[in-house]
Protein 1
Amino acid sequence: MAESVDKIMTKNVVVCSPDASIMDAAKKMKDKTISSIVVVVDKKPIGIVTERDFTSKVVSINMDTKKNAVNKIMTSPVITIPPSTTIYYSNDYMNKKGFRRLPVVNESGELIGIITQRDLLNYFTEQRKKFVMSNLSKDLRESYPI
C-alpha cells in the first residue's frame, strides 16, 4: 500500500488572516525562512501567498505593503488535498499542475499540514537510498557468502 502524505507533510504550517498586511506576511515568511504562507479563516485555507506573488503582484507595481492586505495578492481559491492522498498521486498532481505546495485539510476542511516539493524530494531520496542499500547488501551477500 502506498504511503499517504500525512506521513511526510509539514504539520506546523505558517498562516495569516486575509486582512493581515502584506508586510506582516512577508516578515513571517522571512522569520520562518519559508517561501509561502497559507491564508486561513476559522482554520480553513482560503488562499496562499508565495514568493512569486510578492514579485509579480507587489514589487512589480510598487504596491504599499503596509496599507494593503494579503487578500489582494493571494491565490484563491486554494487547491487542497486530504491527508490520505498518496505521496505518489500528490507528486504527480503537483508536477502536472506546476504547484510547489499543497495544503492538507481534514474532513472539516481545516488546515492540518502542507506538502511541499521539498517534502517529496526528501521522501523519494530516502526511498532511493533504501533501495540501493538493500540491493547492495543483497549483491554483497550473494558475492561473498558466509
Protein 2
Amino acid sequence: MRNSRQNTILRLIAAEHISTQEELQKRLQTEGFSVTQATISRDIRELHLIKKGDVNERYYCQEQTPPDLLGGNPVEADYAGNTIVLRCTSGTAQAVCTVIDSIGHPEIVGTLAGDDTIFVLVRNAELAGKTAGELTEKFQSR
C-alpha cells in the first residue's frame, strides 16, 4: 500500500500543480487512498520532496533513492543502437527517470521521460544491451 501510494504521489506531483499537503490529501482521496496529514508528511519526507518557492510554488522531486520509488517499474526494456527504451506504468516515467538520473551510471549520457516511456541514451551501441539488462535487474529487484 505504501509503495502504491508513494508512486501515486510522484505521478500526481509530476502531472499537476500541487502546492499544499491538503491538496495532495484531496487528490490521494480521489485516487482511492484514505490518508492522514501525518502520513502525507511522512511520505513527503521519505520521497525527499521539496516545495520550491518560485512563481509556481509546488512540490517537486528532489534526489530519490531507488528503493523508495521503483515499485515494479519499469515493466519492459528494449534497445536499438545506443538508445534504451523503458516502458513503465502509466504516469510514472518521470519519477522513474529521476531515479535513473540519480543512480549516476557511468555509461548513461542522458534520459528523457514521457508519460509511460523513457529513452536512455548510452555512450555506444555495444553498451546498450548490457546497460538495459542492468537497469531492468535493478528495478525488478525492488
Protein 3
Amino acid sequence: MIVHIVFFKFKEEQKKENIKKAKDMLLSLPKTIPTLKSIEVGLNFANEDRAMDLSIITHFESNEDLKIYAIHPEHLKVVDFIKQVVEYSKVVDYETN
C-alpha cells in the first residue's frame, strides 16, 4: 500500500472559501479516479506558526496507481485550482504493509 500525504498553506485572500472549495474538489476525486482507494481531507485548527491549513492522506495499491492518479485529468483540475490559491505545499510518500 502506498500512502501519499500533502499539506497545504493557503494564501490569505479568500482563504476560507478556497479551503472549502479545495476540500470539496478533493473529496470528489474517488468517484472518478479508480486507482485512488481512499482520501481523508483534514482542516487544521491549530494556531501554531508551523501549522498548515489543510492536509490530505490518500491510499493507493501501488506506486504505479499513484502515478496514474497524478496525471488523471480530474486530479489535474484540482491541482490547477490549488496552485492558484496556496502559498506552498509539502508532500510525503511512503510504502506500508
Protein 4
Amino acid sequence: MILKAFKEKSNQKYINKTLSNRSVEVSSDKIKSVGVLLNDSEYCDYEEIEAFINALGILSAKCNFYTFSKLNPESHNQWDAVYSPKDFGWNGKLKNVDLQNFTDTKFDVLICYFLAEENELKQIAAMSKANFKVGISNKDERLYDLIIDVKPKDFEIFKTELKKYLTILNKI
C-alpha cells in the first residue's frame, strides 16, 4: 500500500512537471486526425463518438481511441486499445508500448471525454503531443486548450459545442 502511494505521488509530480513545461502552439490547420481518451466507468459509447467524428469529415482511419479501465480491461474488445493502472511505472514511465505510441502521435485534436481524477487519465492527456486538446473537466485547466463543461452523459451538448468552437477556430 505504501509503495502504491509513493508511485502515485511520483507520477503526480511527473504530470505537474509535464504541464508546467507545456508550450501551447495551436496551429490553424484543418483537423485530419483525432485521438480520443475515454474512461469506461463514465462514458463508453464508441459508436456515437465515431459517428460524430465522421460527421466532422474525419476519416475513421485517422481516429484512434484509448479507453481507461480500472477494473477489467480484458472485457473490452471494440476500442482500439484499453489501458489500466498496470500500464504505468514510476516517474511517468509507461509500460505499454502502444500507449507510448498513442502519446507520441501528433493528433490534430485530442478529445478527453472524462471527468475522473485518476492520475492515469491525466497523465496520458498531459503526455500527449496532440496539437489541440479538448476536455470536459475543469478541475485542472492546464491539461486542455478548450474546456466544454458538460457531464459525460450529455454527449449531444458536447457535440454541438465542440462543432461550434471548431468552426469558430476554423478547424473544420
